[in-house]
Automatic annotation (TrEMBL):
It comes from Paenibacillus oralis. The keyword GTP-binding does not apply. Belongs to the bacterial solute-binding protein 8 family. Residues 193-227 form a coiled coil. Its main location: other. Residues 84-341 form the Fe/B12 periplasmic-binding domain. This is ABC transporter substrate-binding protein. Residues 39-69 are annotated as: Disordered.
Length: 341
């Protein structure tokens, strides 16, 4: 082979090597520019498409897992597990138990929880609300997967934001009145709709039978519920707790002094205006003893028609201030027993 051919071949190989180096260098530069945010090659999946696909996959995964997105009574949209297991619902323990569910922790005032539920809540730790709502750290230790707040006041002052970071949080405007509505909702949240329906059906039957007995014994006469507490004395209206049971469910007459209000303050001066033939008295958590003694020993109290006729009954603060079907059933029983004897 001539020297010319050898040199020509060598030159050709050198040019090919240089061209290959340029191609490789161009590929590296293209990859680098893509990392810096330049357009991706046509025909390749874009990062936006990948993100959309990931979001769609997450949505499909949520649907397949049975998660549900619902809106609470304050307008918060939340996603909850198909069947939540670790429930924290302060002051709704009664409703949970009626559905066969134990909460991870229970409401308490100091060391005292809802006395009438303690047998069923045996072993359930207490969280103290006496000085405000418990710290996020305290609640986190129970690992809740659903939080239910029985009133919107529990969600105020930034508390909702704190709770919702711990677990999906459903808020009632006020679950302490119409238990039929709140229990139905809780049943839906927990996947316990059948249990809720059965419990409500039994309660409605109980109320119907009680109404028939009370109509014959009481008729159109009025009933007052007076609550003695450390902050004062109040006449309970028909919007919540025992007042809802007595005046709304059982349909017993209510004093004009409270009318459609949640409650009305009672003092010695306006006591003679109390238009009631029967009076239920509640010593709230044993903190109204002094006020109760002072009022009931007064000549004004003793001059009232209901008092003269022996129609004053002290009832248990344990469940007359309770919120749930267990408490409501006990209130119905007490009302029938005391007013038909």
């Amino acid at each position: 082979m001539s020297k010319f051919l050898v040199h020509a071949k060598s030159g050709f190989m050198a040019r090919m090597s240089a061209l290959l180096c340029c191609v490789l260098l161009g590929s590296v530069l293209t990859a680098c520019s893509m990392k810096e945010g330049e357009a991706e090659p046509i025909g390749q999946p874009s990062s936006a498409n990948v993100a959309e696909g990931s979001a769609a996959a997450d949505e499909n995964s949520a649907k397949s897992s049975g998660e549900r997105t619902i809106t609470d009574e304050l307008g918060h949209e939340i996603t909850i597990p198909a069947e939540p297991k670790n429930i924290f619902a302060p002051n709704l323990e009664d409703s949970l138990l009626r559905l066969g569910v134990k909460p991870v922790a229970q409401w308490s005032n100091g060391k005292r929880g809802h006395d009438y539920l303690q047998e069923e809540l045996k072993g359930v730790p207490k969280l103290d609300f006496s000085e405000g709502q418990p710290s996020p750290e305290a609640l986190l230790s129970y690992n809740p997967d659903l939080i239910i707040l029985h009133t919107q006041t529990y969600a105020q002052n930034g508390n909702y934001e704190i709770y919702s970071k711990i677990a999906p949080t459903y808020v009632f405007t006020n679950a302490s009145g119409n238990i039929e509505n709140s229990l139905t909702t809780i049943g839906e949240l927990l996947g316990k709709t059948d249990e809720a329906n059965k419990a409500l059906q039994a309660y409605r039957q109980k109320v119907k039978e009680a109404q028939e007995k009370l109509k014959e014994a009481v008729g159109e006469k009025k009933v007052a519920i007076i609550r003695f507490a450390h902050k004062g004395v109040s006449l309970m209206g028909g919007q919540y707790l025992c007042g809802y049971v007595v005046h709304r469910d059982l349909g017993l007459g209510i004093s004009d002094l409270v009318g459609n209000e949640n409650s009305a303050s009672i003092s010695m001066e306006i006591l003679p205006e109390l238009d009631a033939d029967y009076i239920f008295v509640i010593n709230a958590y044993g903190q109204g003893t002094e006020r109760m003694k002072e009022m009931m020993e007064s000549p004004i109290w003793k001059s009232m028609t209901a008092v003269k006729q022996g129609h004053v009954y002290e009832v248990s603060n344990e469940y007359w201030l309770g919120s749930g079907l267990i408490a409501y059933e006990k209130i119905v029983d007490d009302t029938v027993r005391l007013l038909t004897q």
